[in-house]
Amino acid sequence: MIGMDMTPQETDTASARYLFRLRVSNTAEKQLREEWGRCRWVWNECVAMSRKVYRDNKATGADDKCGPAWLDKLLTEARQANRWLREGATVPQQQTIRDFGKSRAKALKDIKARLPMKQRAGMPRIKRDKDTRPSLAYTKRGFRVKDGRLYLAGGIELTVVWSRDLPSEPSSVRVYQDNLGHWYASFVVQVAAEPLPGAGRAIGIDWGLTETATTTDGAYDLPHAQHGKRAQQRLAHYQRQMSRRERPRNKPQTKGYRKEQRQAAKAHKKVARQRQDTGRKWAKSVARHHDQIAVEDFKPKFLAKTTMARKAADAAIGATKTALVEQARKHGRDLRLVDPKYTTMDCAHCGARAKHRLPLSERTFTCTACGASSPRDKNSARVMPVRAGFTPADVEGVRPGHLLRDRAA
Predict the structure, then answer these.
(1) Which of 75, 211, 332, 337 could crosslink 8 through cysteines, CB 3.0-4.6 Å?
(2) Per DSSP, which regions of 61-177 are E strands?
(3) Secondary structure letter of residue 303 according to DSSP
(4) Residues 265, 180: contact at Cβ < 8 Å?
(5) In angstroms, rounded to a whole number, what is the distance separating the alpha carbons of residues 240 and 245?
(6) Angle, to 10 degrees, between the axis of helix 90-112 and the axis of helix 68-81?
(7) Which domain of life is it from (predicted)?
(8) Predicted confidence (pLDDT) per residue in 52-92, tens digit
(9) If you average pLDDT over residues 356-360, what whole number do you get?
């Protein structure tokens, strides 16, 4: 029934990523791209070796042996035989193998679990230079931060735009480039919990599309910000200009096309940041004023193939839920993810369950047992604290002596 239970005792420290913009000189960018070329070669060799092992195992029935330890040995042999590969740092190449191992293990796990093809992660694929952007990972022995600058193995020196201080010494860093050509450094650090004073309040949260989040306390409802809808006209203009300037396949694009493509990418990036900022501010407010948080464990991925795909993407439910989980962990709040099954069919007032599911067009829930009537999403939000095991007296519509029957367990 409950997907996750976080109590204050379990939140003393936690890993977190701190992202910073990088100022990269032409020399440093050339070095990073050369390093990425080597790492990309290592990845592609791992993919080729994985496919070869699979074919051999399928023919002979042998056990799988294409793990990171075995690939590390092959990398050592390749570095000894290849001077170009040896000129690069060892750490990012080894981390490339680790990333490949995680990706392959996830794919094999999905295959073993017999998940449907649409839900499987898929085996790692070849990375082509024109289709991938640089991404280099370094462990503690492959980088250092000194005098405000980031030094990477291989003599690469980068200037970091320190927008905030690191809470602790970083254990690893990933340097990557986004679709606008900007470089970033993502540090993994240990963050100590910052418990807030007890608020003595609980809240239930239900996700939706009319309102991104409906809560038991109307003051904390999160309306649909519609950042993407407001930017749609500007994005459509850039896309029309790109279409007019586009050249046939296998021919280099014009300067005008690349200019409009960059403008479209900037607009998309701005919308993504607006969604993230809205979700974080709301999550901070909820965590600050509530000790107990019951959240619907809603997975919006299935909406991507429906007529509500665009609106669901604009709502950014997944990012908002992630921000709420992070804030609860940071401030020592008791957050529980609740299975969404039957939450729209149960009455929060008396606990009776409707015999039939409500169609999406019906936005008002009316209980056939007690006659209570309330907005559909508001009723579901009131069910969440009860499902999570909270029985607060100050949650409107939920009584401590509840009769809710949990058939979804």
Answers:
(1) 332
(2) 135-139, 143-146, 149-152, 156-161, 172-177
(3) G
(4) yes
(5) 9
(6) 150
(7) Bacteria
(8) 988 887 767 666 678 899 999 999 999 999 999 999 999 99
(9) 71
Q: Are 336 and 6 in contact (CB under 8 A)?
A: yes
Tokens describing residue 84: 């170009």
| Token output for 191 | 């963050």
SS3 155: coil
Q: CA distances (Å), 113 to each of 78, 105, 108, 220, 247, in order?
A: 35, 12, 9, 40, 45
Q: Is 197 helix (H, G, I), strand (E, B) or coil?
A: coil
Buried b or exposed e, range 303-328, using 16+ CB within 10 angstroms:
beeeeeeebbbbbbbbbbbebbbbbb
Quick: pLDDT tens for 360-370.
767 777 777 77
Q: Please, what's the b/e burial string for 346-379 (b: 16 or more CB within 10 A of its CB; e: otherwise)?
A: bbbbebbbbeeeeeeeeeebebeeeebebebbbb
CATH 3.30.420, the chain: domain bounds = 202-224+274-388
> 3-state DSSP helix/strand/coil percent for the chain, to nearest 5?
45, 20, 35
Residue 408: C-alpha distances to residues 338, 341, 346, 353 (Å) = 10, 6, 11, 11
| Cα–Cα distance for residue pair 306/208, rounded to 1 Å | 15
For the entire predicted model, the pTM comes to: 0.79
* Residue of 182, 172, 185 lying closest to 95 (CA atoms): 172
Return the structure tokens found at 6: 């976080």
Which CATH number fits the domain 202-224+274-388, given the four candidates 3.30.70, 3.30.420, 1.25.40, 3.30.2450? 3.30.420
Are the CB atoms for 357 and 351 separated by under 8 Å?
no
Q: What is the DSSP string of 217-250?
A: SGGG-EE---HHHHHHHHHHHHHHHHHHHPPPTT
Run of H or E residues at 204:
strand 202-207
Residue listed under structure tokens 């193998």: 97
Amino acid sitting at position 124:
P
Please check the confidence at residue 115 and state whether its pLDDT lies above 90.
Answer: no
- Sheet containing 334-338: order of strands: 2-6, 334-338, 292-296, 202-207, 211-215, 222-223
- Map residue 132 onto helix, strand or coil: coil
**What spatial distance separates the first Cα and last Cα of the chain, rounded to whole Å?**
5
